[in-house]
Design goal:
28% of the residues lie in helices and 25% in strands. The chain is an alpha+beta fold. The relative contact order is 0.20. The structure holds pyrrole-2-carboxylate.
Length: 406
Amino acid sequence: FGLQSEHNEPRFFPESKPLKSHYDVVIIGGGGHGMACAYYLAKEHGITNVAVLEQGYIGGGNTGRNTTIVRSNYLTPEGVKFYDTSVKLFEDLADDFDLNIFYSTRGHFTLAHTDSALRTMRWRAEVNKHQGIDSEVVGREEIAKEVPYMDLDCNGHAPVMGALYHAPGSVARHDAVAWGYARGAYNRGVEIHQKTRVTAIRTQGDKVVGVDTDRGQISCNKVISMVAGSTPRITEMLGIRTPIEIFPLQACVSEPVKPFMDTIVVSGSLHVYVSQSSRGELVMGASVDPSVLHSTRSSFDFVEGLADQMLDLFPFMSRMKVMRQWAGMSDITPDFAPIMGKTPIDGFYLDAGWGTWGFKATPVSGKTMAWTVANDKTHELIEPFRLSRFADFDLVGEKGAASVGH
Ligand code: PYC
């Protein structure tokens, strides 16, 4: 599915070998963010004595469990700048990797079914435009022209009044993104250790000196936690308090059908989002599950609720079969923005709080975290997302752009 390069190099699998006793940097988490950080550490900062430790397999956490949407139509200037950098990196990633990541620019509609939703769309459009991002509020006629197969009257339940249209909205093959970064990091000397679980982080005073794993001890100067839904397990090892709570986020795909849908459609009010994959499957999701749960179990409730809302918008889907469903663990913060950068423990860096928007941040998070670790100084793009903002009451209110209701 595209893991072969244009030059027909064989598929890449990291060699399994013993852990070394020392690395300069240990990255916990072999998802997209961890792999991207390892890649940029090696490529842009020449730091290659790096181990990525992954308790499962590469990209098997939230990286392989999202609905692959990429966009920068956020609500705050801080969020817009950050995700715009990510979109631009995504656009060049296939060339950078020499690997097809199936990046497909589709255009992204966020539907408004109420006056207050329309007001938020106007707000987002103005903030976006101010930052040079291509977003605008469009009316029913424009939506009907671009998405003719959608029932704008929603079967009379909650008629669509307008939408935020974001032309750069895209989808990408999520596994290829993680494996492209992994291969690029590995070829530059980074070690990737799958099935390696971190059991403790060792400190002396307030400084990191190593990690314990189920495969032995490592000494190191710097540790970066990039584990999304497993963040509380890691931060508890150091007694670091964060306001993160974990909620399952479920998704599913339909059987493949003839291509008919070339845009991404999101409704925050109906709690659905949908796009059609290059294989013809409809990739669909809803809001997070209603209660805190550290689990990736799927439920029938989810499919039933999703189908109910989807059929309001797309009645002709009623006979379509669901093929697969799955769940990820969303690490949600109170202001719906991530937590990134340095922490009170010297040498311990955090990349977390990815909630339901982590995939789209993969390149920019890897790049800015690598810079932060290499320079031991928080990159300016992620300064607003520092952990201390919760103590300083300096929040980055991003809930209105979180796409799905929470
Ligand atoms: O933030 O675009 C988004 C999103 C889509 C699905 C879940 N989150």
